[in-house]
Amino acid sequence: MSEENIKLGDYIVIQRQKYTKLYKFTGKTAVAVLGKQKIDLSSIDGLPYFSTFRMVPQSDSSKVFKLELCTNPHDIKDTIAIDKSGKDNRDINDDGRSQALTEDEIKNLRETCETSTEIVEQLVDNSKTFASKTEYAQEKYLRRKEKKYYEYLQIRKPSIRLIFDIYFRQDPEKLMGMRMDTLSQIITHSGICSAGKHMVYESGTNGIVLAAFLNSSGDAGDSHIVYVHQGNVPHKQAVLAMNFPESYNEKFTPVNIYSVLRHFYQKDCVQEGIQEEDAEPEAKKVKMDDEEKKKWELENARACAIMRDKVDSLVIVAREHPSAIFKELVQFVRPGRPFVIYSPYQEVLAECFGDLKASQPVLNVRLYSTFLRTYQVLADRTHPDVSMSGNSGFTLCGYVVKKECSE
What we know:
Number of helices: 13
Strand order of the largest sheet: 2-1-7-5-6-4-3
Structural class: alpha/beta
Order of helices and strands: EEEEEEHHHHEHHEHEHEHHHEHEHEEEE
Number of strands: 16
Strand content: 15-25%
Helix content: 25-40%
Largest sheet: 7 strands, mixed
Radius of gyration: 28 Å
Distance between the termini: 65 Å
């Protein structure tokens, strides 16, 4: 089956108008919940991504919908003909009695009407004030009703932007307040590409930075990422949601920061002949040598081999204070290569800025914050969005230089 087709086990993005939801398609009996509505996903298996479906109520329940493939979804605004509009809304009294249909009659429309267009047409015909509204007010009314009764949805393939927008809408704290434009700046300053070795420390962003780096490096080159994290299990939710091929699992090595540093320094001690006396019996030692090493030991060994050879960039996205983390990891970066540190707090990075300039082998250190303003662009009413994020954290970036040998 093509990767462009939906298959069992995939993460999918369900989009209904501007609302998006990330969902794992676990089986043909899977049911997704959108607000108060339940969507039967049994009919999407094997169909291409970006297919559009019509939500059809099941006979036994008005809140459970099955999906029918649709090639020509209707736009209510383009379907309903507006014959008359008012000059202004000054004579319209919002007393809640403009709609002639009762609440029960409106509920029955969902069962008797086949499409959402028919429902909205009934609401328009029975509205006492619709014809008196201005053309702009009529359009807003239709859009509001379309949002409520819209019967189409699309199954989209997950992307970094879609996953990021879903996380950010649910809770910006899941991303430490980072916006998409800030993530793009981190990727740009890191110099990630299809070649080279890179080190990423991430905590508190559900693996979105690792997923973005894997997406940027691709599967064609020989790039590799040492993914450093705290805790026993790396955060890879965003990586899993991207539905990367199995080959991407060889593009990064997840390691615990304490474990990999201990492994690195212990191996260095062994190579220098500073190994501690081994008191284990010979028989037990042979038995341990014959056993297969644990996965984390293999990952540590793989990461340490890359660290000894040095990496081409260092990226730190941390909830905790990054100074100590940077001091431990900067030694593994090649001279002339970039580093990027992200934190939601300016004071933390300002302190790091001073420490780096005073004691670390770095050059061209810059501390900045991006500002992105989105606009609604429509005829005669273009303006900035009313609700927007005013802060997207702070980024500290620069280049590592070679340490001078002390005389």
